[in-house]
Amino acid sequence: MAFAALVGTAISSVIAWRAQFAWAPAALFLATSLMLFALALRPAIEIHEDHLQLGRRSIAWTEIRRVDQTSWKAPLALYLTLADGSRVLVLYAEAQEACTALLRSIRRHAREALLDGVSYRQFWGEPVTVIEPPRQLPPPPRARLLLPEDEEEIERMFQRLKTVGHIDQRADQRRDSEK
Asked: What is the pLDDT, as a whole number, of residue 62?
């Protein structure tokens, strides 16, 4: 396709020497040819059990944190976000079936990544284990140690202690008798 676009560029350029309107198609053919050559010369993509090989660059599956697919289906365009925060654009210019197979393989191997914003387990329909916080038990019922009359007596003694400063009634009686 890139060579065909290059031939179209040459033919449009020859015609453009005679007719000025042919420069626009020549420019479009040239842009298409350059884009197709760039896609054709992209490094090879290899899937291994422990890493993804993009040309000379090797990316461990455990380093991939996000796999985000663009709207392009063929050629396939993916953004891989790595553990260090960098993003890698993966372009794969093949037939639709090959692009779908590559996308599925990358998604299957990237177990620690979010796949289009969804966790790996949720994306593939695996049960998600949710760790529930331990439930707090209600406090045990308070056992009654005193009778209501005794509680009232203790409350009166406490109030007296707060106002007088001591509880001893005999000391109060002695003080009253001395006066």
From this structure: 92
The 3-state secondary structure of the chain reads CHHHHHHHHHHHHHHHCCCHHHHHHHHHHHHHHHHHHHHHCCCCEEECCCEEEECCEEEEHHHEEEEEECCCCCCEEEEEEECCCCEEEEEECCCHHHHHHHHHHHHHHCCCCEECCECHHHHCCCCCCCCCCCCCCCCCCCCCCCCHHHHHHHHHHHHHHHHHCCCCHHHHHHHHHHC
Q: What is the pLDDT of residue 22?
A: 79
- Is 161 a domain residue? no
Number of domains in the chain: 2
Domain that holds residue 17: 2-40
Same domain? For 28 and 73 the reply is no
Look-up: residue for tokens 């197709």?
A: 36
Which residue stretches of the chain have pLDDT < 70? 74, 128-131, 166-179
